[in-house]
């Protein structure tokens, strides 16, 4: 429940409905008709994603980072919804088992059954990235064709109740393989911004991905929260 409330509020923050701060917890409780604990968890989730900051005694203020701008990707949001007008072209959609290269790069055991989805993504009809993603069959046994061309994470959350509780992310500048270069209309001598990502539900890795960004003037944003022991 609190994830759904957080999702509504995130979309409203990005749409500019709260110029300075969120409504109070009491106002949000009355709006969504839920408990104080549910609202607190929803706001905590939004805070972790870097969209608001708490000022003791004053409430939750909006962080005015232009994450809705088309050239900014908020890595903390995890690509769970259609925040940008993205369309997809599926290149590969099949079943494989994890080989040595995947076990070396990601937290997954050798021969783990995976669903592999390779897709080109477009933002406003302009090439945005090439995404190679793997989903652990033991956690996510089925992904529909419709989801593969749309928001896979949204499908997984609705179908299985699974969402990223934590994520490992590694950024690098890497040269493309011949196949990648052909798909992206680049050369193998050029280096491209590449994101390696492992998403976890609890302690279980359920999604592994390599994303190559080619969209012009792209900026990446992420938020870190350090909790101090009381």
From TrEMBL:
- Coiled coil recorded as keyword: no
Residues covered by the HTH gntR-type domain: 1-65
**InterPro entries in the cross-refs:** Bact_HTH_transcr_reg, Chorismate_lyase_/UTRA_dom_sf, Tscrpt_reg_HTH_GntR, UTRA, WH-like_DNA-bd_sf, WH_DNA-bd_sf
What keywords were assigned to this record?
DNA-binding, Transcription, Transcription regulation
Q: Which domain of life is it from?
A: Bacteria
Record's protein name: GntR family transcriptional regulator
What is the originating organism of this protein? Loigolactobacillus jiayinensis
Q: What is the lineage of its organism?
A: Bacteria, Bacillati, Bacillota, Bacilli, Lactobacillales
